[in-house]
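Bench notes, afternoon.
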Amino acid sequence: MKKKYSEEPICAVDYAFKRIGGKYKGRIIWYLGVHSVMRYGELKRTIMDITPKMLTQTLRELEDDKLISRKVYHEVPPKVEYFLSESGTELIPFIDHLRQWGDKQIEKEKLTPIKC
């Protein structure tokens, strides 16, 4: 397996955003934090604007970065559960802080919030 990150010095902010940046990673981490364990279909229904290909790719990247784990049950039909790793769980307070900020902005702009 090739190394994902070089041995050269890297800014901690750049490193962090490479692992959790993008449209879906933070949301997947958040929902796994809220629900503890979710299956692929549950994630797909929860994040309605994500395509199956992008969900699969994002889950693989989060797993490669050791932010989530998955458990495969060898049964028919196949069953796979996703949950946060210890490292992923450490991100929840920061994502919650962003959620609180978002709540304030939604209120200021008089938008209609939904529960997430």
